Structure formats: C-alpha cells, structure tokens
Amino acid sequence: MDRKDLKERFTRYFNEHESEMIEDLKTLCRIDSVRGAYEAGKPFGEGPYNALMTAMGMCERYGMRTANYDDYVIAADLSDKERQLDILAHMDVVAPGEGWTVTEPFDPIVKDGRIYGRGTSDDKGPAIAALYAMRAVKELSVPLSKSCRLILGSDEECGMSDVKHYYAVESEAPMTFSPDSEFPVTNVEKGQFRMDITSEFEEEETEKMLLELCGGTTINIVPGRAYAIIKGLDDDLIRDEAKKVSERTGVSFSISAASNGLRIDAEGQSAHAAHPDDGKNAALALLELVNILPLTECRQTRLLKELGRLFPYGDNRGQALGMAVEDELSGPTTVSADIIEVKPGYISLKADSRTAVAATEENTVKPAETTIREAGFELKKTVKGSHVVDGDSDFIRTLLECYEDVKGVKGHLVSTGGSTYVHDLKNGVAFGAVGEFTDTNMHGPDEFMIIDELKEAAVIYALSISELCR
Ligand SMILES: [Zn+2]
C-alpha cells in the first residue's frame, strides 16, 4: 500500500468511526482528572487514576497489550514486535477555572463541529486520536515490521513526575512524538533558568516609605496586577508621577486611601512567561513608579533602585542582567519577573527565564548571578538545558511529509519557550494534535477540539505509524 492509498483508507476509517471516537473522548472528559491528593495506589488522586484506568480499558478493548506502571503511567503496545515509536500523551487536566459558557467543564458536548469540555484538546482528544490511529493500523492490517507504543501519563500538568517514573524503568524508543501541542513539528524547546532573588535586612521606620508591594502569584505568568502601600506622600504627587510611568509602559495606576497610607493599584496585562512581550508587567511598572517617588533614603529604597536596575520595565531579554543571548534555532532568551513581594525588611523577586539554545553557564547563569549578588541580593536558582532534535532526520522528515499529505499545506519546524513531555528525551518532538492556527482555549474556559482536526490528526498519526514502523 502506498501512502496515498493508506491516506484514503484511514480517512474512510475515521469517518466511519467518528461517533465511536467522540463517545470514547466524552467518556474520558467526564472524568475530573485534576491532580488530587496522594492515596495508596492512586499517586495523583482519584481523578487521574480513574482516567488512566478508563483509557487502559479502551486500549485493551481495541486489541492493544497494556502494562501499568504503578498507576503513574500506562502503556499500550500495537504488537510484540521490536518497538520503533513511542507516542506520549496524558490523561490529567488543569483545574476547570471560571467562565464556562457552552457547557460545564466535565460535561462534554458536541456543538458546531466542535467538542467542548476540559481535556478535549489538552490532552484527552489528542490521546484518543493516537489510540484510534493505532487501532486503525491494526484493524486495517497495515503490514509493519516494528511496533508502536502509546504511553499515557497522569501528571503532565503538575511536574511530570509520571514520565520520570516510567523512564526510570523503561528506555525511550528510537523515536517519540507527543500529541500534546500543535502541528506541525516542535523540535526545539528552550531551556529554563529560574531565579529566586531575595534580600533580608534590618527594618527601618522612616517618614516617607513603602510599606508593601505585591505583584504576581504564579511563577510562569507575567503579573497583570500589582499594588503598593506608601505612607508620608501626597496623592497628587504620586498621581503626576504615575501618569508619566503610565505613558511609558501602558500600565495604568489608580490611587486610593488605605488605613496606613495610600494604596496604588497597577493594572497591566498578564501573559505566559515564555512570551513576556505579550504582557505588560504591572509589578515592574509599579516598581519603576515607586523608585521615582521621593521616599526617605534608606536601605530599602537603595535595594529597590538596584532591583529596578536589574529588571527595568520592558527588558524582556535579560539585557540588564548581562544574559541577553539569541540564536537562529530558538530566537532570544526571554526573562519575565513574575512574583514581587516587598515588606519592611524583606524584598523578593521570582523570575522565569526561557533560555536560548545558545545560552550557557558562561554567557547566562554566571553573569546574571554576579550582577544579582553585586546588587546586594541572594540568589537561589534552577537551571534546565534546552532540547533540540535534528530537523533533517528521517524521523522528522517523515512526520512533516505525513502532515503535508493530509493537510495539503507545507510543514515546518517550530521552536517553543515552553517545556513539554519530551524535553528530556533524546529523540522526542511535539507533533499536533491541534491545528497550527487554532486556539482551543487550552487551560481556559470553553476548551474545545475541532472534530475535523481530531480526525485529521488521527489520519496523520496512522500514516506516521505506518511509515515509521514499516
Ligand atoms: Zn498537555
């Protein structure tokens, strides 16, 4: 069978099995598999466990041989031949959050060619596309000399301890793709450098002082809001300075009375830390404003000026930290200051940097560390290298060809600032299942998957399995 033949047979297969596929996806999406508390035999709580076991039952029903890795991960093998390809997806979901309008988060429905519900696109839908791809290859008796394994995890969203558990006892297949992203192929993931910067010092009571500054709650989100409390200053003066900072940054400020002084609220725009240019960092704009106010000179004001020098508003590349690096493969290093907390005698800033492939200890970590320490702060750090898979390999070329055949558009390689399931694998890439230009509200309210895209993904995966395991 050549690829064109196969494509037609698979397309027909998924058209015939569409309603069955949707029913299976609904079954998985009805399970609230947000991470819960540990229980014996349920390492991530009831929900992720139930989703994992339900998916395992489906794999068995469709003729796969399954294995359970201590209820962290299940695996389903297409055959007992030598394993060539792993497909890595996950059954846990992020919390439903607020603002659902089309349906309740765990009551999946089909509407206007889409299926709505938590997990429909991240990642239960793509997992179903992969499972049905394996099922189709099996039921259509595509002749293969090698095997493919579906690996389903249950802790992707909160630390990926599931796959660590799996790979502690299993080796990676010669090739792995993860349908937990978008098409076409993401073969480059930046590294990550997290900075936890603090200073503790003797608290001084002065006449005009900052009592409190708070912005951000999550380490990988640009803070869209921040506030400060200041005593001893006139509100008109603050308002004048705020206007100037607002014009420069686009962050708006409002001033109100607080029991112990004046409260300044800053409103910018939150964004993912991997894309700080999409946001307006309210905490950094507020820090800039505080630093131009005529506060009484003291240790705190000096340290805050230093902090503002290290993290000036709009420096999303780490210029001031001396760690701005970029390359063609991954683009520039980004830096996002995500959580700032200032109290009398205490200053803390947590930053999340996604480092370019060209970033090294020498050109990134060391200069930042030196700059931060010289400014009078302590630094705790975590550093993770980047992930690159050769875009010219047979593996990647085959994935792109299968994608192009089905979608009828030119494929290309993508680099991301995010870190996925395959980050620590030697030969793993992200591959679909969401269309390149589709925003499925993953992690937000009204998450959905376009049903035609789900079927197309299944065809692409079935073709890829057929080619790679031929
Ligand atoms: Zn995911």
What this model shows, in words?
The chain is of the alpha+beta class. It has two domains: 3-189 and 388-468, Zn peptidases (Aminopeptidase, 3-Layer(aba) Sandwich); 191-384, Alpha-Beta Plaits. The chain contains eleven helices and 26 strands. It has helices spanning 3-16, 18-29, 46-61, 124-139, 161-169, 235-249, 282-292, 299-310, 361-374, 394-407, 451-468; strands at residues 65-69, 73-77, 83-90, 109-111, 114-116, 147-153, 175-178, 181-182, 185-189, 191-200, 209-215, 221-222, 225-231, 252-258, 261-267, 271-272, 326-327, 331-332, 334-343, 346-355, 378-384, 387-388, 413-416, 428-431, 433-434, 448-450. Strands 1, 2, 3, 6, 7, 9, 22, 23 and 24 form a nine-stranded mixed beta sheet that branches. A hairpin with a 3-residue loop joins β17 and β18. α2 (18-29) packs antiparallel against α3 (46-61) and α2 runs antiparallel to α4. It starts with a helix and ends with a helix. The structure holds zinc ion. Zinc ion is lined by residues 90, 122-123, 156, 180.
General shape: elongated
Computed CA radius of gyration, to the nearest angstrom:
25 Å
Question: How does CATH name the architecture of the largest domain?
Answer: 3-Layer(aba) Sandwich
What is the helix tally? 11
What's the average pLDDT?
Answer: 96
Spans with pLDDT under 50 lasting ≥5 residues? none
